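ok so dumb question maybe but i'm new to this and my supervisor (M.) told me to 'just get the structure for Glutamine synthetase' and walked off. so i did the thing. is this what she meant?? sequence i used:
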Amino acid sequence: MSLLSDLINLNLSDATEKIIAEYIWIGGSGMDLRSKARTLPKLVTDPTKLPKWNYDGSSTDQAPGDDSEVILYPQAVFKDPFRRGNNILVMCDAYTPAGDPIPTNKRFNAAKIFSHPDVVAEEPWYGIEQEYTLLQKDVHWPVGWPIGGFPGPQGPYYCGVGADKSFGRDIVDSHYKACLYAGINISGINGEVMPGQWEFQVGPSVGISAGDQLWVARYILERITEIAGVVLSFDPKPIPGDWNGAGAHTNYSTKSMRNDGGIHVIKKAIEKLGLRHKGHIAAYGEGNERRLTGRHETADINTFSWGVANRGASIRVGRDTEKAGKGYFEDRRPASNMDPYVVTSMIAETTILWKP
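this is what came out, is it supposed to look like this??
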């Protein structure tokens, strides 16, 4: 086994200029990540200079068997924390051979919104709080929970320390460092209210890069849990009953909101989000109705509300923002399994482009 680990850790740049590029894309469910690797003659850091590639879309539920070719367009490049050296991870989106985005390509529309001059001028910043649950592989029950049983009630686990309160920290810390190595703007991690549940935050990121970075951070986490023999769940309510669900709270600001008097822009934006509440909820993740019950730090799914420092509201404005009269707000509605391309672009479209 030691020879195996020596080979895995081989530094290619000692022997060759060639590098390995791992192309990553989103599969047919909209949540499953896929990837495959290819050799390139030398390091490339600009995605526009990377070759397009293809895959069998009939095996990912994205194309029929008799016309199965789907084309990968490289969109963002990160350093590879697994192979290290000059090797790279490449976030791609998917197109038909004729050049049309396939139906599950949500990045294409998001990029159109983020390249609109009015949106570009506002420099939308995002900070996404990605919650997730670690499950024991064979029983699909949270790590640290007795098989078939339950731990003590919620309370001691949030940001908890100790063998009876914190489960899976080695995975979480490995992921934190791997994301920093990759060049993802990961800004923190913490243990969550339900034992076996954790959160990482990505941002501040501008525009489309928020989606690229969150998807690659999810990919890295999937790879690390694969190594650890643990199952990663983005289910918004993995355990029914008196346990917190999992969300992806999305913090947001525009240039106008960050400037003096920005609180008035924030209030106008929240008003617009309220008018489109149903449309946003429909796009904010599957199974979210099990999470947004009005309990466990959520607002009821059918009611739009906002408040200062209120974690039971749809939209929370921080005390600092209220005090400064400018800043950002947090959309607490997105589920942990939301597509960041959809959520970030939808918030920008509603608050900047839409004229009710």
